[in-house]
Write a structure and sequence with these properties.
The protein has 358 residues and is an alpha/beta fold. It contains twelve helices and 14 strands. It has a seven-stranded parallel beta sheet, with helices on both faces. Strands 2-1-3-4-5 form a five-stranded parallel beta sheet, with helices on both faces. It has a two-stranded antiparallel ribbon with strand order 10-11. Helix 11 links the parallel strand 13 and strand 14. Helix 1 crosses helix 5. The N terminus is likely disordered.
């Protein structure tokens, strides 16, 4: 993945490392300090220590473990971020709590290495996400609080779209990256149980996409699963592309399935939003909707433009509600986006469009 460039490329990013493990702290500090754009401002051994040292070190970005003695990283985020909006990149093992951390304002997360072989990849990923975080928008406390208050959609709380035959012939693609886990939830939890089939690409480390799909399934009215090759697209089902596989839509007669395969990275990612959107533009003959949301870089912009040229209705998240206005910004600039909306309003825009089809 290419390292993004922040607006002021001459100013070093001051990073504070918060982790109770000396081994983990050393790996993170040595790895990050090797990059010319980053300097280590200092470290803390737990969240309480961090609260004392932040005014002294004045970091631009914090990396933080989730599980620590005394006060967890999650509790730190809940109590500290509302009045001190500092970008935080969570460093976590394969743990559901990472999604709770994102819900209360963390910018992104990196999976801790589980062996020496993955240490270099871990440092590279963390370096990239720290640089992205330095120029990211920390979500307002009210938004973060609302995200943690998410509840499973009550049966019947969201009116169904109904049995219009035309809605059986619509496929929706959605792509997101940094900030997208919660922004996508903001969209999904406002959609009805009988939504047309959806395919979602969210850039995420291996192991987390299944947990993310399960989380969406709990909190949203429709069924959500991690995609597997051969799964058929149908109304009421949203499929999340598995990490480290390219996910494409395939047409078999009048039916549509997904194909999840190993392969080269596309637009720097696997799964790639561009790969999914491009496949839709090439094989889908029914109505299409493409949605591009918050994320660094430009993955998905070209694919969304290809969809629009094939008659798709396209929606982009606006700058004000994006944690990082990269992917939707590029898509807007090249003419791929027909309508812009905040993550809170994208569902309304989508449903309004679907009702015109029914």
């Amino acid at each position: 993945m290419a390292i993004p460039v922040t607006p002021n490329a001459n100013k070093k990013i001051r990073v504070m490392v918060v982790d109770d493990s000396m081994v983990a702290r050393s790996l993170i500090m040595n790895g990050l300090s090797a990059h010319p754009r980053i300097e280590i401002a200092g470290y803390a051994i737990n969240a309480l220590d961090a609260k004392v040292k932040i005014p002294q070190y004045k970091p631009d970005v914090i990396t933080m473990d989730v599980e620590m003695p005394g006060q967890s990283g999650l509790e730190f985020l809940k109590t500290y971020l509302p009045t001190n909006p500092i970008p935080v990149v969570v460093v976590s093992s394969l743990n559901l709590k990472v999604f709770d951390a994102l819900a209360v304002g963390a910018i992104d997360f990196v999976r801790k290495p589980d062996d020496q072989q993955s240490a270099d990849a871990f440092v590279a990923a963390l370096t990239t996400k720290v640089i992205i975080a330095a120029s990211a928008r920390v979500r307002p406390p009210a938004t973060a609080a609302a995200a943690t208050a998410g509840r499973p959609a009550a049966p019947g709380a969201i009116p169904k779209l109904g049995g219009s035959p035309s809605l059986n012939n619509v496929i929706i693609g959605l792509g997101a990256s940094t900030g997208g886990t919660e922004a996508t939830l903001e969209v999904m939890k406002r959609l009805p149980a009988d939504i047309p089939p959806m395919v979602i690409v969210q850039h995420m480390p291996p192991g987390f996409t299944k947990m993310y799909a399960e989380r969406l399934n709990r909190l949203c009215a429709m069924e959500v699963q991690e995609a597997q090759s051969g799964m058929e697209l149908r109304r009421g089902l949203a499929l999340v592309a598995p990490a480290d596989l390219q996910c494409r839509v395939v047409r078999i007669g009048t039916r549509y399935t997904v194909n999840c395969t190993h392969g080269e990275k596309i637009s720097g990612h696997r799964p790639s939003v561009d790969a999914m959107f491009q496949s839709m533009s090439e094989v889908v003959t029914c109505k299409m909707v493409g949605i591009i949301m918050t994320g660094m870089g430009q993955d998905g912009a070209v694919g969304l433009l290809a969809m629009r040229k094939k008659g798709a209705y396209t929606i982009g998240q606006d700058k004000e509600s994006s944690v990082v206005y990269g992917m939707p910004g590029v898509a807007m600039n090249i003419g791929a986006v027909m309508t812009q909306a905040s993550c809170e309003n994208i569902a309304t825009v989508l449903l309004r469009h679907l009702k015109t089809l029914g």
